[in-house]
UniProtKB/TrEMBL annotation:
InterPro entries: GHMP_kinase_C_sf, Mev_decarb, Mev_diP_decarb, MVD-like_N, Mvd1_C, Ribosomal_Su5_D2-typ_SF, Ribsml_uS5_D2-typ_fold_subgr. Performs the first committed step in the biosynthesis of isoprene-containing compounds such as sterols and terpenoids. It catalyses: (R)-5-diphosphomevalonate + ATP = isopentenyl diphosphate + ADP + phosphate + CO2. This is Diphosphomevalonate decarboxylase. It comes from Camelina sativa (False flax). Its EC number is 4.1.1.33. Belongs to the diphosphomevalonate decarboxylase family. Residues 15-188 form the Diphosphomevalonate decarboxylase-like N-terminal domain. Keywords: ATP-binding, Lipid biosynthesis, Lipid metabolism, Lyase, Nucleotide-binding, Steroid biosynthesis, Steroid metabolism, Sterol biosynthesis, Sterol metabolism. The gene is LOC104791697. Residues 202-359 form the Mvd1 C-terminal domain. It comes from the Eukaryota. It is an enzyme of class 4 (lyase).
């Protein structure tokens, strides 16, 4: 390394992902190993995403991180595990113009500054940690010249937040739970790329942008400890559903896709109710949105919209095409008119500039 001061920086943007077959429950809390496989769809990078800049310089005296402009502690094991795993795979980096060469071993002595920004509410059940850790791992891997494919990087992002491993790929993604104790086979794989089924339009109805009362991490821990339904779901239900969902995605079979997505979301929330004490993530508005979609699908004779809810009341609605998305948005605005004093807001995600951030 040259002695003069220099800074190397990398900026990356990573979208969040929404599970259509949910991850809920860990068999290993430290390595973040799940009790079942899950499948998600990654959103367009321009909409709900995290942008992270990572910088390294001999002028930095310790690792530091800012989230949405506020400094946060990096001392937690999730951050430490990701930083350690990435550092251990760092390669040589050279900038001939600056006359700087960082050798593999130098990375242990150098410190990082990380600035991350979410363009959507943090910890409101919109998978902010998924985009956040995926972006952190990806940008650090670029900065440190880590020579690993996205599946290997996904196993590192997984140690930051389980769902983050799925954001390393676009399109439809499966997180394979794996069977090894060290978690090396608990990785994400791409099932289909973003072009495979690009008729779909995803609308996110933000019912509340308040931080949730029970985090996913503690909620799923309580479910693992107390819910018999979770055991049944993980062993008997999800393995079959994963195969059916893979088929539905492969064949672009919207009827099966909707049936599986809605039932899986409802079972996940049933597990939350089966937890002791019960966890309520959805609220009355969420339930009204479910009724609206169910009635509409029934009246059309064939499903038009799928719904799914994560650990919060916000609805993720997947319309079969743009025409349906426009009708859906009109319906949402009619039945749930946005009031200035509420948080209700819709994000439309997809190839659809007209509808972006309606409401
Ligand atoms: C309901 O990935 O946030 O969104 O691994 O503890 O960080 P940790 O949990 P997290 O859980 C996400 C749960 C979910 C379902 C899903 O995304 O599959």
């Amino acid at each position: 390394m040259a002695t003069e001061k220099w800074v190397f920086m990398v900026t990356a943007q990573t979208p969040t992902n929404i599970a259509v077959i949910k991850y809920w429950g860990k068999r290993d809390e430290v390595r973040i190993l799940p009790v079942n496989d899950s499948i998600s769809v990654t959103l367009d990078p321009d909409h709900l995403c995290t942008v992270t800049t990572v910088a390294v310089s001999p002028a930095f005296d310790r690792d530091r991180m800012w989230l949405n402009g506020k400094e946060i502690s990096l001392s937690g094991s999730r951050y430490q595990n990701c930083l350690r795993e990435i550092r251990s795979r760092a390669g040589d980096v050279e900038d001939k113009e600056k006359g700087v060469k960082i050798g593999k071993k130098d990375w242990d002595k150098l410190h990082l500054h990380i600035a991350s920004h979410n363009n959507f509410p943090t910890a409101a059940g919109l998978a902010s940690s998924a985009a956040g850790f995926a972006c952190l791992v990806f940008s650090l891997a670029k900065l440190m010249n880590v020579d690993e494919d996205p599946s290997h990087l996904s196993a590192i992002a997984r140690q930051g937040s389980g769902s983050a491993c799925r954001s390393l790929f676009g399109g439809f993604v499966k997180w394979e739970m794996g069977s090894k104790d060290d978690g090396s086979d608990s990785v994400a794989v791409q099932l289909a790329d973003e072009k495979h089924w690009d008729d779909l339009v995803i609308i996110i109805a933000v019912v509340s942008s308040q931080q949730k009362e029970t985090s996913s991490t503690s909620g799923m821990r309580e479910s693992v400890e107390t819910s018999l339904l979770l055991q049944h779901r993980a062993k008997e239900v999800v393995p079959k559903r994963i195969l059916q969902m893979e088929e539905a995605i492969k064949n672009r079979d919207f009827a099966s896709f909707t049936q599986l997505t809605c039932t899986d979301s409802n079972q996940f929330h049933a597990v939350c109710l089966d937890t002791s004490p019960p966890i309520f993530y959805m609220n009355d508005t969420s339930h009204r949105i479910i009724s609206l979609v169910e009635k509409w699908n029934r009246s059309e004779g064939t499903p038009q919209v799928a719904y799914t809810f994560d650990a919060g009341p916000n609805a993720v609605l997947i319309a079969r095409n743009r025409k349906v998305a426009v009708q859906l948005l009109q319906g949402l605005l009619y039945y749930f008119p946005p009031k200035p004093d509420t948080d209700m807001k819709s994000y439309v995600v997809g190839d659809n500039s007209i509808l972006k951030e309606a409401g």
